[in-house]
Amino acid sequence: MRHTATILLGLALLGTGCRGWVSEQPPVHLNPNMDTQEKLKPYRKSEFFPNGRAMQTPPDGTVARTYAGNEVRDRALLGTDEHYNTGKQGGAFASTIPAGVDLTLATLRRGQERYNIYCSPCHGKDGAGQGTVSRRLTTKPPTFHQQRIWDLVPGDIFNTITHGKNFPNMAPYAAQIPVEDRWAIVAYLRALMQTQKPDLPAFTGGTANDATAFDGDKSEDAAALDAKLGPVAQTVTFDDGTANLSDAGQAALNGVAAQLKGNTMLLQVTVVAADAALAQQRAAAIKTHLGGQGVDGGRVVTQADTGADSIDFRTADANE
Fold first, then answer.
1. Are residues 106 and 190 in the same domain?
2. In this structure, are residues 305 and 271 in contact, taking their beta carbons and an 8 Å threshold?
């Protein structure tokens, strides 16, 4: 009987403390900091500021976070260059990279770095759409290695980074990634696509930069490797008027591959031929051959130009 009375008394005491019951007593705050936090709310007073207001006028030049990515406001705030700031020309997606973007290895390295931070969690570092986050998503991101993505023009990709795609599947990244870095990612994405499709044409536009632009930004290892690759480049030859590597050319590229396997250098290959299409085909052939020798396509950047036949190899440190 004593035990029964104790149980009933305990239940009665417990019941009086249930949330939602009416009481004339003030609530018990076991941790008052959770209810009264040291922060300022709109329209409340503040003893911190001299005017006693929690709401303060933003400093001159402040740009609201919600402005980022809005095309009209971007043009007003960042300039009138529609191509550079929005990825469009005359309201249509631009088919080229704007002239304000330097297409250099440094830009590609920056694009790779930003891609790995913001894009690879879903799209994967290889662009196959199998990133760590995507494995838990119901709607999977697409692989970049398909015709539909290969056909996208630079402005379309820039616009997707800016505004997102099929929200909430992909949110906008304008607030996190500034305009310059968005274009760097666009340039790097094309190089990433070419790792699986070497004959994919490179994006055009940007500010032309020849290979010598990288000479002043090299470690001793990169400079030493350049010295070795210089003579080798002269023996990378093709059958006359074609993009077919000669036997000597294949042997020379095997030597290049052997040099690259011992380090993490990036390689820029500049191919010049009388015909622009032929130069592009030869550049693709070189990249394909190096890939067959075990060189990661992401380490090889090709450029094609018109003029007297020549091939130039230049390296850059991958982690600068």
1. yes
2. yes
- Picking from 39, 149, 161, 44, the residue whose alpha carbon sits closest to that of residue 111 is 161
State which of 154, 183, 207 marks the end of a domain.
Answer: 207
Q: How far is CA 142 from CA 161, 166, 193, in A?
A: 14, 12, 13
Q: Is a pLDDT exceeding 80 seen at residue 13?
A: no
Residue at token pair 């001793």: 220
Place of tokens 């809005």: 70
Distance CA 42, CA 29 (A): 24
pLDDT tens-digit series, residues 145-180: 999 999 999 999 999 999 999 888 899 998 899 899
**222: containing domain:** 212-316
- CATH number for the domain spanning 301: value is 3.30.1330.60
Half-sphere exposure of 99 (CA within 13 A, CB side): 3
Pinpoint the alpha helices (H) of the chain.
Answer: 2-15, 71-78, 82-86, 105-118, 120-123, 147-150, 154-163, 179-194, 220-233, 247-261, 276-292
pLDDT tens digits, residue range 170-217?
Answer: 999 988 998 999 999 999 999 888 888 878 888 888 875 443 344 445
Q: What are phi and psi of 85, to 5 degrees?
A: -85, -20
Percent of the chain with pLDDT over 70: 82
Q: Are residues 140 and 258 in the same domain?
A: no
DSSP state of 70: -
Round the average pLDDT of the chain to a whole number and report it: 81
Across 246-270, average pLDDT: 85
Distance in angstroms (rounded) separating the CA atoms of residues 183 and 188: 9
Q: DSSP secondary-structure letter at 205?
A: E
What pLDDT was estimated at residue 196? 81
**DSSP conformation class of 16:** T
What is the CB neighbour count within 10 angstroms for residue 95? 13
Residue 154 inside a domain? The answer is yes
Do residues 44 and 54 make contact, with C-beta atoms less than 8 angstroms apart? yes
